[in-house]
Amino acid sequence: MNKTRFFTVLLCLVMVLTMAAGCSNSSDPAPSNSGSELGKDPVTIVFWHSMQDKAGAQLDALVKEFNEGPGKELQITVEAIYQGKYSDSVTKMNSVLTSNNKNDLPDVMNLDATGKVSYASSDAAYTMDDALKADADYDTSKILKAALGNWNYAGVQLGMPFATSTSVTYYNKTMLDAAGVTSAPSTFADISALVAKIPETTSDNKKIVALQGSPNTPSLANYIGQLGGYVVDKKNGSEGSATKLTCVEDGTLSKFLTAWKAMYDAGALEVTDPDTDAFVAGQVAVLTTSSSNIETLIGKIDGKFELGVSNYIRVDDSATEGATISGSCLVMFDKDDSLKKAASWEFVKFMASAESQAKFAVATGYVPCNSGAADVQEYIDLLDEYPQFAVPAAQIAATPDTMISVTVGPSMDFYYAIQNNVSDMLTNNLTVEKTIENMVEELNGLLDQYNMANPS
Amino acid sequence: MSDKSRRKLFNVLTPIAAIAVGIVIVFPLVYGIFGAFKSPAEFSSYPPTVLPKSFLYTENFKNAMNIMPFWRYMFNSLIVASISSVVRITFAVLAAYAFAFYDFRGKNLLFFLLLATMMFPGDTLLVTNYLTVSQLGLMDTYLAMCITSFVGASQMFMLRQNFRTIPRDLRNAAELDGCGDLKFITKVLLPISKPVLITLLVQSFITSWNAYLWPLLVTNSAEMRTLQVGVSMLTSLEDTNYYLVLAGVTLSLLPSLVLFVIMRRNINKGMTAGALVG
Amino acid sequence: MESNGQGNPSVTIRRSSKVEKTKKKRRFKLRPYLLLIPIFVFAIGFIYYPFIKTMLHSVSTVNFKGEITGFAGLSNFKYLFTRKDFITALLNSLKLTVMTVPLTLLLCVVMALLANNKRKLSPIYETMFTLPMAVSMSAKAMIFRVMLHPTVGIVNHIFNLDVGWFLDEKTALIGIMILVVWMGLSFNFMLLLSAFRSVPDQLIESAKIDGAGYFTRLFKIQLPLVSPTLFYILCTDMVLAMLTSGPIILLTHGGPSRATTTLIYMMYASGYGSSNYSMAACISIIAFVLTFAFMILAFVFERKKVHYE
């Protein structure tokens, strides 16, 4: 009797589990329609994205607008699915690519820089170049060049920019005005000069610091790029796998480190990641971080002081103005279904249209990648109410083509290696030469290790 | 001081000390919940405050429930957490029983093999498990979300500790009375171990309830997502809109709190003593 | 040697091997193995199988997609040991474990003793002690980040401190330790409370009658009787401490200046975050081996000090 009882219980468990397996809600994908034309037959495409919070809400609104408008006319339905933050969705994409099960791939995906290389080297990519070949009428001139360039890898245009942001300088305009500084800080020297002019402590006796910063890969790309150099070879890793640092031979790294150290010695610099809460509390005068923060900052500051936004600071006046692009793009996948590919491209074009980009920008603070957005009333109203939003857009337009964001395999290690080496230089009082030596050893070492495992 | 008055002092001081410690321990939680009632500006204000200006500020909760399909996600989380915890504890009880009341070849080896599963960093298992689930055709099912939680070595370990304090005489006596293993487990062992059992069940439930990455990976459709994935939809890329996330977290606390109340009542009933003789 | 139910320790009487074998054969039961099947099926499928695949990664060259492209022998391990952040990560993991585990044990015992006797106010503080259990790790970490913020954080404000907490390399690890200890208190307290409450009242009463003082009762009766639970808490906390990564990923990113880089964080950042799967596998194996070693030590300790009935 014992054995029977035991197996009965086991059987019950198995039944419960099977029920759980059966209780799913996966919608069957629409039958494949290869060969049929767009508009003649209905098609559903799957869209993976990582938009959260307000951006997520606005994205859903845009998808709805498409499904009820242009999508309806062409019988396209877009199913938008949130896949976690970018790193999680890229993990998922990589897992699916490894499993070689093309059906589990989405049709359109919202990708950021961390997924660029995987996507480019997969054999399921339906790149924007591919789509343009089939749709030669599309005019790409309206799309911001710098934004497009950010999603170009090894000469191939991977996808269409979607959520575009860049790095800008935020400063406490009220504090600077009171100190007699009327123009926005533009170079390191300007920051150092602030130390003597701004008050030492706040009204609550908290120390005020001129600038908070800890250089990492994107900010280094900005500082070096402004000086006309590249951080690593192969145009910052955009043409192929980078093999070494190039900012050493042309002296740009040395220039940057010397000027950065000078700011620290002048007492203007606090070595820490930019802390928006401290800035809002009036304890930091100048901050450099993403342009996507504008709206949140305005909300948090709540009128306590005036928020100044200006172009990204530069090492000195010989450097050009500009900053590299961050954000995310839309890429498409090839699932051997020409109808789905055509439908995906229509959706992508819609999301990059002037109206969509304007709406998205108004709701989220991202920069529209379509220059036509400047003519859309909602966007014009936004700029009227918050002139700060015009700054990143203008900066992107003025950024030279040569300023490209850095793409390296060992991304996290690289990032923290730069950060740790620079902060070690300041807190352990090392010379610029020694720091450069350390950085070359560590960073080139990381690249070597990566290239050994990934021969191109 | 006489013994009696020392005892009286003790009886007064102890609960006071306990409450003081309790306040320190629960403070971060309460602070977090209060944060859900603060507006963005209030949240980052300096100097920082504990209490929100008004408990009527429900904007954060409204926004949170707008951004994610709250009730559907909660339902999914409930199902996944319930199945996970029940199956996990069932398997753990069976295994712990075997280790506590039987001697057999390879016993120690098998025990350590199970314990070892606790020590593998979870991230290393993620991608392979994803592939396995995908190959089994289980993507987007409740089972997929539960399946990796069925092995609870930690719970099995605790149960084994607990079972080992029960003398084998009891088991032998029951066996002589014609009581089989399962009967013994259900009629004698589980009632005795009720406090520990319930604690472990609740803990497993809560762990599964709070899981984020795995349910995210194995589900594709919005209808199958769980609450934690929903809460992550509330964070913004700049990562500083705590007030909104805290609202989401507070909402997702509700079932856990209900479970809590149930758990406390059951544990306070105490164990059924008397089965043990001296 | 455990007693075999009859209460007699095994006496060394030499039996002829033949008789021994027959005795063993008769005593062979299928039952325990059957009871273990469910848990083992899933353990093999979802834990051992992936982990063995990982072990393969550690001795192969793996490309950024996670595909094995060749055999590398021990060169991955050699590379790992030459990285200066590896020693830092190892030390940080050990520091974290050595400091948080005893502290957690001590605090839990204190809490359980405080709450042991049921009083009118019991529900209040018992709930306060156990409530943090209900919240997810990421929520707890986020709350701590807000509370321990150097300038707008409530902790520095209330205690009039100027500590940099997570933003200062000298105090970041301490901040993480406080968080880890706090996270572990609730659940362990619950288990320990059950254990303390199941100590038979008669034993305590008769000890009191015999004139035993509070501390004698504590150390000679209560602690030995709850030692199985204490042992469980010791082992699981050790494992959790060695494998700590969640709070670090969310709060400090291993910094500042690698002050909070632990082994598993390094696996996450330098392994997965840097497309270096082979190194991630190497680190996870080393973490596993170390943790396992600690466990074995603990079990050796168990034989001497832990009392089951």
Can you put this structure into words, describing what you see?
The complex is a heterotrimer of chains A (456), B (278) and C (309). Chain A folds into 2 domains: 43-165 and 326-398, Periplasmic binding protein-like II (D-Maltodextrin-Binding Protein, domain 2, 3-Layer(aba) Sandwich); 166-325 and 403-453, 3-Layer(aba) Sandwich (D-Maltodextrin-Binding Protein, domain 2). Chain A has 20 helices and 12 strands. Chain A has helices at 2-22, 53-68, 70-73, 86-99, 116-121, 128-134, 145-150, 173-178, 188-197, 217-226, 233-237, 252-265, 276-280, 294-301, 338-351, 354-364, 377-385, 390-398, 411-427, 432-453; strands at 43-49, 76-82, 108-112, 125-126, 152-153, 156-157, 160-172, 209-212, 269-270, 284-290, 307-310, 325-333. Chain B is an all-alpha fold and 278 residues long. The longest helix of chain B is centred in the first third of the chain and has 33 residues, at 3-35. Chain B is flat. The two termini of chain B are 36 Å apart. Chain C folds into 2 domains: 18-75, no CATH class; 83-305, MetI-like fold (Orthogonal Bundle), CATH 1.10.3720.10. Chain C is globular, with a radius of gyration of 24 Å. Chain C is built from 13 helices and 2 strands.
Name the poorly predicted regions of chain B. 270-278
The CATH topology label of the largest domain in chain C is MetI-like fold
What is the 3D shape of chain C?
A: globular
Element pattern of chain B in H and E: HHHHHHHHHHHHHH
What gyration radius of chain B follows from the Cα positions, in whole Å? 23 Å
Question: How are strands sequenced across the largest beta sheet of chain C?
Answer: 1-2
How much helical structure, as a percent, in the residues of chain C?
55-70%
What's the gyration radius of chain C in Å?
A: 24 Å
The total of helices of chain C stands at 13
Shape of chain B: flat
Report how far the terminal alpha carbons of chain C are from each other. 14 Å
The name of the CATH superfamily of the largest domain in chain C reads: MetI-like
Amount of beta strand of chain C? under 5%
